[in-house]
């Protein structure tokens, strides 16, 4: 069994998951951008594209889940001249392109092009996602990780100010929200319905997180429709009863409010809420982010821009966007924690920038979310259940590569998390591999976790019954995703420094295909630490043995008999 | 809330070193805390001695907060006169550079230090005559030209008690034996010899008393042009190939002289290109690397990015940070120097050729490249004593002009260039890329760079061994003062107590295994490296990697400069350098073997500890690499104490309890700037950028679009 749970079938050259079936294979030349053309054989299954080079030294292997493919193009024609000019050009969602050259005789690429297109874009061909065919078995069941009721209970909810409502049980109030919502105690279901009418797509303000001490809350919603301010006061009345200043974070750039007002969008005017303060966080929209990532790919793939690396990096604006998202989240977290005020976060629909901000602020404020399971809960809650449109943003199984709905919003969130873990290397239970694995399966379609746009749709498609959860894979092999330096710290707000001096390009993710820029694996610092841990455990074990034998030898020494257990427990609490 | 405490009238006296004299002072000076834009600060006395400028806090009773890492010579509020970079006076909110004579005295004094600290003193509450005295005193003593003998070094050496300091294993290269030992260590003694020709400095005052040349070089040739045109040995590689340096002839107007010099050089090249000597490759560093002027300009711009007055400046420069960094060119210079060192290493290791570095004086870039090559190729240079010996060999005794390059005497700015700092910056890149390979830490490199400006050590305060020797005798002073006994910077106990010195040692360093074992290992290792080139080397594709166009150029450069008749023209595949680099990086790293820096764009980083350490905005509470380092240190101590307990159990001794105080208590809350953070801010307030978004002009149409983009045309189809 390989590390990623893939089984190699005997006498077969390619790895296969249970439920994975082979479709076709062909001799090709892989145009490796780093080592030049590589002769090999490509195998296509209903899950992956797998290439193995003919030459064994060095052996070149490509193992690409079809889900990462964004676009397949034919290059060259039957009459094209020049070596290796006829073949396929594959653009991937994970920062690489693949190019295969084929023999020109006999339309050899037609079959492979058709097979690839069909299985890479099953949704466009009325085929199911591989997740529905996957027959893997895991000891852990990842679908059990998130239970909204127990997560709210963990936060101490419901309480005298907040109640749980089932008004959306059948997604009647809002079809992009989860069925279970936490709302102000005084707001009746009738109030909620009224409020919903004035929020874009009925995404009413609901609670995301409550501070265990100050009781300040983070709420999320969509932007208000125009002309609703007066009625909207009702929902706010309930909040003002708490006597806290109320902050409003509007995530789009302030200069854009006019255009929003003109097109039917509105924002929470300060005059509407006497106790509220309004912030604009200048975070740009999904289209800007998509273009930024495109530019980033241009400078890192296939080769790293050399002569003006820093200014090229700057010109992509990617880290600048990361900085702004982090800055916004810090502000939200700071208001809730030190300012002891509640905040309401929204962008236009409340499922992109809003999710980034609330989840990052929660990660800063609540150390539970910095554990492996806690982070899974966070993603499950703030992103998946609150309707981040994964299907549209990623384009799972959809051939329309130019769809303007696609955008790397979730990637950007994971990047922010990585930046935080880089700045605080002992604060997170999970390691970099955990984040990379999440991103890999964001595209792979091997698990049901990120499929579809909302809980409503996932329920309709019976995702939890028919597919596996990514968390099953991860939680079944936790040690692989665990950061050895993690020290548990409760109730400590963790503020990253959102300065370019500290933000770095995540080389191990964005430039991981380049063999020239490879981080040492395993990380030598981590390795040394693990060695020391093993050494310590060994000493403790031997010491215990020694003490047992010594104690049996000297029965009258009371002093030394007390020491072993004392010492051991001290050591254990230390970690 | 502004905390301006009422000044307390209290006599605080500066702590003076032997030989240190108080020159002037001013009281009721208000020192702003750097950490925020507010006017918070403390009152105190500002003094200037012949060694330092010092601020004495009136309220300095709070010694309970004793930092774990403290310099015994230069305190938190001390600035040695050599450490002062620039002084500005503030007049009616306007900053003016203070250099010589002053007509008007400022309300505020801003002192920028070479170790990148920034001090802000307010003089508004100080008596006028005291302001005059302190300002002109500080400007005079730190900014105007000085005689060598007026350096504090001499007062200290004559007044300090005769303590020779603790023994350390650094080889000083002051004796013939030291050179012979080095030859033996590197097995260079078959083809190279240490010579005494320069005794009495009869060859040159620039050359060290003893040095090493090829055996076949005669004494006459050394003497002929004051050592110019003579290949001087730096180091021998395990395969016998040697790294040499040579001081070039200056451009001659006179044709016959240059003809003679050319003939002389040809003779030399001929002699040392014959067997047993390897093929010789020349590299003229003055044309293949940036000039000293370029280096100075780049560093001047670079350091400016870190001399930040306040929080607003910090955030204002943050948006454009990467392009600002790039525009200084400093990181690019580091990259080019590292690349040059890789080229030299490739010639020595793979091509088995000798490399002769040429430079006008052979004491600047030659020192950088030869040191760097040795750090990369000789794991001894990655130990603390090995590195210190290397600095002695190539720099201190090798004759790098520290006095002029650091402009310690303010004689001429034209000579100033941060050549030694460039080396430390390059070594730092290696240290952070391969943490287990070095016995010392980045903190060691940082304090070493700080020591450049501490004039109680002779190490960095002379231009040559000759200059030091002649000034050591004290002949120009009264005879009874006798020869001065200078301290060496390698005696770290002078600056740091043992607890602080622990931060200079790398807990990740894995010592080299036993010699007999390692020899076999390195032999195998060598073999691996040579056979490790990928067999399927494809034709060069459209690489934009770092050797792209330069490889050919480099090879041509080297070829062109080789002496035609000695070339074995069949060697050198054009991309051998590229192969060397790629194949080395495709193998697991042997931390005791050859080490090549990664030099692609994203790999060259800013030495954050040195450059960001005084900037509170850049501080991560409980974060940074120190967080993991602290955990490792804690664990190591635990393992050690367990070891002690084991021994006790074995010996059945009922001894007292073991005292092992974890070095870094509560490590989770350490500042990432540790051990340098000035004040551990207790505030949990996050640092919030104050800058605003800059326009995305080219993407204006995108910016204005809604997230929910509905493509109607698609629906209609």
From TrEMBL, chain A:
Q: How does it sit in the membrane?
A: Peripheral membrane protein
EC number(s) in its UniProt entry? 3.1.3.95
**Its GO CC terms?**
filopodium; late endosome; plasma membrane; ruffle; sarcomere
Record GO biological process:
mitochondrion distribution; muscle cell cellular homeostasis; negative regulation of autophagosome assembly; phosphatidylinositol dephosphorylation
Question: Binding positions for substrate?
Answer: 285-286, 347-353
Species annotation:
Sylvietta virens
The GO terms this record gives for MF are: phosphatidylinositol-3,5-bisphosphate 3-phosphatase activity; phosphatidylinositol-3-phosphate phosphatase activity; phosphoprotein phosphatase activity
The family note in this entry says: Belongs to the protein-tyrosine phosphatase family. Non-receptor class myotubularin subfamily.
Hydrolase is among the record's keywords? yes
Q: Which reaction does it catalyse?
A: a 1,2-diacyl-sn-glycero-3-phospho-(1D-myo-inositol-3-phosphate) + H2O = a 1,2-diacyl-sn-glycero-3-phospho-(1D-myo-inositol) + phosphate; a 1,2-diacyl-sn-glycero-3-phospho-(1D-myo-inositol-3,5-bisphosphate) + H2O = a 1,2-diacyl-sn-glycero-3-phospho-(1D-myo-inositol-5-phosphate) + phosphate; 1,2-dioctanoyl-sn-glycero-3-phospho-(1-D-myo-inositol-3-phosphate) + H2O = 1,2-dioctanoyl-sn-glycero-3-phospho-(1D-myo-inositol) + phosphate; 1,2-dioctanoyl-sn-glycero-3-phospho-(1D-myo-inositol-3,5-bisphosphate) + H2O = 1,2-dioctanoyl-sn-glycero-3-phospho-(1D-myo-inositol-5-phosphate) + phosphate
The record's section on CDD domains has: PH-GRAM_MTM1
Q: Which residues form the Tyrosine specific protein phosphatases domain?
A: 316-378
**Region spans: Disordered:** 554-575
Its predominant location is membrane
Checking InterPro entries in the record gives: GRAM, Myotubularin, Myotubularin-like_Pase_dom, PH-like_dom_sf, Prot-tyrosine_phosphatase-like, Tyr_Pase_AS, Tyr_Pase_cat, Tyr_Pase_dom
Pfam families, from UniProt? GRAM, Myotub-related
Segments forming domain Myotubularin phosphatase: 142-510
Q: Which SMART domains match?
A: GRAM, PTPc_motif
What protein name is recorded for this chain?
Myotubularin
Composition bias (Low complexity) maps to 554-565
Per UniProt, subcellular location reads as: Cell membrane; Cell projection, Filopodium; Cell projection, Ruffle; Cytoplasm, Myofibril, Sarcomere
**KW ATP-binding (keyword) present:** no
**Keywords annotated in UniProt:** Cell membrane, Cell projection, Cytoplasm, Endosome, Hydrolase, Lipid metabolism, Membrane, Protein phosphatase
> Per the record, where are the segments of Polar residues compositional bias?
566-575
Q: What is the lineage of its organism?
A: Eukaryota, Metazoa, Chordata, Craniata, Vertebrata
Q: What class of enzyme is it?
A: hydrolase
From TrEMBL, chain B:
Entry's Gene3D superfamilies?
Answer: Pleckstrin-homology domain (PH domain)/Phosphotyrosine-binding domain (PTB) (2.30.29.30)
> GO terms for biological process?
phosphatidylinositol dephosphorylation
Enumerate the InterPro entries for this protein: MTMR12-like_C, MTMR12_PTP, Myotubularin, Myotubularin-like_Pase_dom, PH-like_dom_sf, Prot-tyrosine_phosphatase-like
| Chief location | cytoplasm
Tell me the Pfam families matching this sequence: 3-PAP, Myotub-related
Subcellular locations according to the entry: Cytoplasm, Myofibril, Sarcomere; Sarcoplasmic reticulum
Q: Does the keyword Cytoplasm apply?
A: yes
Question: Which PROSITE patterns does this chain map to?
Answer: PPASE_MYOTUBULARIN
Query: Keywords in UniProt for this one?
Result: Cytoplasm, Sarcoplasmic reticulum
- Per UniProt, residues of the Myotubularin phosphatase domain are 173-611
Task: List, alphabetically, the SUPFAM superfamilies matched.
Answer: (Phosphotyrosine protein) phosphatases II (SSF52799), PH domain-like (SSF50729)
Specify the domain of life of the species encoding this protein: Eukaryota
| GO CC annotation terms, alphabetical | membrane; sarcomere; sarcoplasmic reticulum
Per the record, the similarity remark reads:
Belongs to the protein-tyrosine phosphatase family. Non-receptor class myotubularin subfamily.
Protein name as catalogued: Myotubularin-related protein 12
Encoding gene per record: Mtmr12
